[in-house]
Write a structure and sequence with these properties.
Length: 284
């Protein structure tokens, strides 16, 4: 009987180990390698300063971060800080990867702006560029291709984590540039990532779980061409900055053909007047 119970216990422990080591949901063609997770932190209420390896910059007050099942929740917005740094082996994994990813969950009613930057192994800080490709994968396995936007509050690109989203975020290293104000020095992925950094705004709450590196043959560096549409809008929208000149519609009053437009309009008005007079005479 004891042998049977021992065997059952071993099977149960193996099952738990398999569940804990389960791979995240990833897009087809993505190979995912775990970096680290937070499962070693017991469930409970903590402040960031109590979490080993985490860092907060001067000026950001310490705040509570509940931990449950290896998931850390940030309930305070307009804060930023650093996750634990990678060790040499983990950094080497990122140096041969396409990008990095993480589990996240937004339980709030508002979308969260997440500026996810990092320090490279070369000691430089790298931030997201504007309109760079990244991928969301829901807990149900649905892939959603998105593009970063410029977060003026943090002066860097950002991801949008939609309200109610739970799943994984995959960000290619091609989306990052050096934080030196030039917007031209893009990250060389062979350098490797050293310290992942979070900055959250606009929403209510955001949770983080395990971190990953991923590789893929898919080209995630290209930016799509936005085709103009002829659909009217209620309010004018600001066009993205571009070096190319924009085509301005001709003003009939300032062209050689402008007088032809006004002659046509006058003729149309005269025709309508004649019809009205004829109809009036017939009624009499």
């Amino acid at each position: 009987m004891k042998k049977i119970m021992t065997m059952l216990l071993v099977i149960m422990l193996c099952a738990v180990g398999v569940a804990a080591a389960a791979q995240p949901i990833a897009p087809e063609g993505f190979t995912v390698t775990p970096l680290y997770d937070f499962t070693s932190i017991p469930d409970g209420e903590y402040t960031v300063s109590q979490l080993a390896g985490f860092w907060l910059p001067p000026g950001i007050s310490d705040f509570e971060t509940p931990v449950s099942g290896g998931v850390i929740t940030i309930d305070q917005m307009s804060v930023w800080g650093a996750f634990p740094s990678l060790n040499a082996e983990q950094t080497a994994v990122t140096a041969s990867a396409t990008g990095w990813g993480f589990y996240t969950k937004n339980d709030g009613m508002l979308d969260v702006t997440a500026s996810m930057s990092f320090n490279g192994a070369d000691g430089k800080n790298y931030i997201l560029s504007d309109y760079a490709h990244y991928v969301l994968v829901t807990a149900e396995g649905e892939r959603i291709d998105e593009y970063t936007f410029w977060n003026g509050g943090n002066n860097q690109g950002a991801l949008c984590i939609p309200s109610g989203f739970e799943g994984y975020v995959y960000v290619p290293f091609a989306a990052y540039m050096e934080n030196n104000g030039t917007e031209s020095d893009y990250f060389d992925s062979s350098i490797g990532m050293a310290t992942p950094i979070f900055a959250v705004n606009d929403g209510e709450t955001l949770s983080f779980g395990e971190l990953y590196a991923f590789t893929t043959q898919e080209d995630l560096s290209s930016k799509p061409t936005v085709e103009p549409t002829n659909e009217p809008t209620d309010e004018p929208t600001e066009a993205p900055a571009t070096d190319a000149p924009t085509e301005v519609p001709n003003d009939p009053e300032n062209t050689d053909n402008g007088w032809m437009l006004w002659v046509g309009v006058a003729a149309a008005v005269a025709a309508v007047a004649v019809v009205v007079i004829i109809i009036g005479k017939r009624k009499k």
